[in-house]
Structure formats: structure tokens, C-alpha cells
Amino acid sequence: MICKILWFSIGVNQAGGAERVFLEGLSYFSKIGVDARLYTAGVRISEECLYKGKYKVNTLNSKTSNFYNFFKIAFEINQFSPDVILANSRNEAVLLMFAKPFFKRKIKIFTFIHGSFFQYEDDIEKYAIVYKKAFLKIWQNDPIYQMYISKNRPKGSQVVEIIKKEIIAVFHYFAVRQSSGIFVLTEKTRKEVILLNNIPPSKVFAIAGAFSKNIFSFKPKQDFTSTKNIFGNKIIFSLGRLATKKKVDLVIKAFSKIKTDDALLLIGGVGPEEENLRNLVKKLKLEKKVQFLGFIKEEDLLDYYYHCNIFVNMDIADYDITTMTALALSKKAVVSSQHIFETELEKSKILFKAFPEENSLKTAFEKALESRNIFDKSAVSVMKKYSWDAYFLSILKIIEEFKLLPPHIK
Fold first, then answer.
1. Using CA atoms, how far apart are residues 25 and 22, in angstroms rounded to an integer?
2. How far apart are CA 57 and CA 22, in angstroms?
3. Is the pLDDT of residue 107 over 50?
4. What pLDDT, in 10s, does the model give residues 176-235?
5. With helix as H, strand as E and coil as C, how does 298-360 read?
6. Three-state secondary-structure class, residue 400
């Protein structure tokens, strides 16, 4: 019997890291013979979310027009009768928690938590009463949180919004606790999830994926340095959504302090901060040294990684797919000191960490520009664990330990 996996995601309107995970997961499961379906409870999947046609997914047909119709969600899930459900975030876990009483049989639910809400300065859920004790302990042990996150809820918060977040926090808290297992990306987030939700460490698994295993034999299709007339320059490449938490403004400010004539900063991505970032470039008179690439097509993306000298990511996060992709291509990477890597990668000669402030980042840039591009063999071996195939195989093995899937899945 072919086992069935249902991946439940209602956040399907953008192309981000969380979307990349379920798209790659569905592709992998289908490849090995698992009947894997995406369920959106009637929410439309945008073309952008599917990376403009790169991914083709099998979906569970849904006639639900309101994803708060728990009975209807349960009915549609019962029709498919999956062996296991993967909730793409805490929000889906909440919906499943309310739909679960209507399931015809017991179905184990595993929840993905793709990052910490401490990463978002304006998310006041972290201040909810249910997280109060854990919040203080986590905040006190992270200097970057202390730098960017207020110890207390911002005074300007609206009463209605506070009440709303308090209720949501309680729902999230119990939905996570009721999950059979939780998948997170790093040990740092794992510890946070355990503390915040007061759950046994044995239920939370820190594993991550980032790229196709084919990346290790990648050959570029084009040399964009010549087409953009920037051949011969030292290229620093930034990629990601142009949002506040990504700290691209910090990258631009630190770059402006580098004393070199042949360094160029290429910024890939789109987002709400684009206009502000362009104005910052003008203010610093960097128009000839900084280029905004906009949205980069999926088929061209690895070419940009391949031809850059340094990849930079100062996101307030402990893990990012873009950085791991750069390291897989043996590119020097300048990252926030909050990023977590395995010991072999931490010791590698192409990884440079900076505290998220201008002078620290400037120093990291200068060290990276002066260094040779040498990647230790042990680090290369570690990178292979971050292929999507290795990642989802690990997930299947964890699910197997709960005796949920047929023994032919190895």
C-alpha cells in the first residue's frame, strides 16, 4: 500500500523559504512513490508561490471557501485519509487542532516552525502572557535580540491588537503541544520552541534542507558579469525579500565604508523596503557601486551565486536557505553572528560572521575580500546533509519512529 502524506498550508501567496520547503517536500515524496498532496482548505495557490511554473504539485481538491470551517476541513481530510499530516506552520496546526475531533480515525500531526517570532520586531505575540517566563530567558541570552527587540511590549500597541495576539498565542501554544512532533531548522530554535511551549525535548527535531543535490555538479549557463558590464570587479551579492528584518540597509551602510575601488554590491529581490533602500544608495552616493537586480528568475539564480565573490546575509535569523546555497557552491559568505552552523562550517575559511552593526560588518567584508576562497573538505562533506533529498529522508525516518508509515519507506 502506498502511504499518504497530506501537507497543509494556507500561506500560499508568496515565494519564500517556507513555501520552498513544502514544494520541495511534495516533489521528493512523490518521487519515492508516496501519495503526497498539498491541501490549502480552498485558499488559491498563487503563481508566484509556485516560483512561476517551476513546481508542479498534486493538490487535494477543496471546496471549502472558509478555512475556519473546521467540520468541512475534517470532511475533506477524511476523504483522502492520510497516514500523516504535515502542518506548514503553527497557524495550520491550530486549524487542525480544531478539526481533529471530526477525523474518522487518529491521524498524527507534525508541525513545521520555520523560524522564531523573535526575528520580527513588530510581532507582539512574543509578549503574550503564555510566553512571559520563556520570553525573558530567551531575550536575556541573545545580544542581537536585546539590540533589536524591546524587552517590553511597545507602548503604542493597540488594545484590540494586544487581545487578538494573546488569544492567538494561546491557540499556537496548545496546537504546538498537541502536535506529535515539531520540525525546526536549528538547535537555537529548538531550544526556544521547547521553552516557549513547555514541551519535552524528544518532540522537537532540528534538521534543515536548502538545495538540490545537483548543486554540487552545477555549471553556469551564462556569465552575467560580462552582460552587465561589471567584469573584473569583486562582487558582493545579497539576495532576499527587501524587508526590514533582512537588514539590507545595514549591508549598504557597511559597504559604503569599504576602502576599495573594485567592489560592487548586487542586491537581488523585491519587497516593501525597496524604495527606502534606493534612496539610501542615493544619499550615500553609491549609484555606481550598487545595483538592484529586482526579481531574479529561478533558472538564473545559481548563476548569480556562482559568479559572485562574496555572499552576504544579515537577516535577523539563525538559518537561511540562501546562505547555505552560497556555501554549497563554495562561496565566501558574510553573515550575522546570530546564524547557526555546524562546527565544521564554523571553522571553515570562507565563513565570516559579523555582529549586525556597521563597523563589525565592514570589518567582515574587508576580511572576506582579502581572504583566499578555500573550503575545507570536511565542510564540503557536511554540506551534503543539507540537500533536499537528505532533509526529507530524515523527516521520513523520524515519522517512521512513530510507526506511522509502511516499512518499505527507507
1. 5
2. 10
3. yes
4. 999 999 999 999 999 999 999 999 999 999 999 999 999 999 998 887 776 666 666 789
5. HHHHHHHHHHCCEEEECCCCCCCHHHHHHHHCCCEEEEECCCCCCHHHHCCCCEEEECCCHHH
6. helix
Average pLDDT, the chain: 88
Q: Return d(Cα 392, Cα 408) in angstroms, integer.
A: 15
Read off the pLDDT of residues 7-45 as tens digits, 9 standing for 90 and up.
999 866 666 667 888 889 999 999 999 999 999 887 777
Tell whether pTM > 0.70: yes
Q: What mean pLDDT do residues 117-126 have? A: 85
Q: Please tell me the distance from the alpha carbon of residue 318 to that of residue 337, in angstroms, as a whole number.
A: 9
Topology of the domain comprising 217-375: Rossmann fold (3.40.50)
Query: What's the alpha-carbon Rg for the chain, to the nearest Å?
Result: 22
d(CA 383, CA 185) in angstroms, rounded, equals 14
CB 309 within 8 Å of CB 369: yes
Kindly tell me the sign of the dihedral angle through the C-alpha atoms of 269, 270, 274, 275.
positive
What would the grid cell of residue 232 be? Answer: 573584473
User: Mean pLDDT, to the nearest integer, of 61-90?
Assistant: 87
Residue 269 C-alpha from the chain's centroid: 15
Residue 185, classified by CB atoms within 10 Å of its CB into exposed (0-12), middle (13-18) or buried (19+), is: buried
- Dihedral sign for Cα 193, 198, 199, 200, please: positive
Q: What is the third-level CATH fold of 4-209+387-401? A: Rossmann fold (3.40.50)
Per-domain residue ranges for the chain?
Answer: 4-209+387-401, 217-375
* 332 DSSP β-pair partners: 310
Beta bridge partners of 183: 112, 205
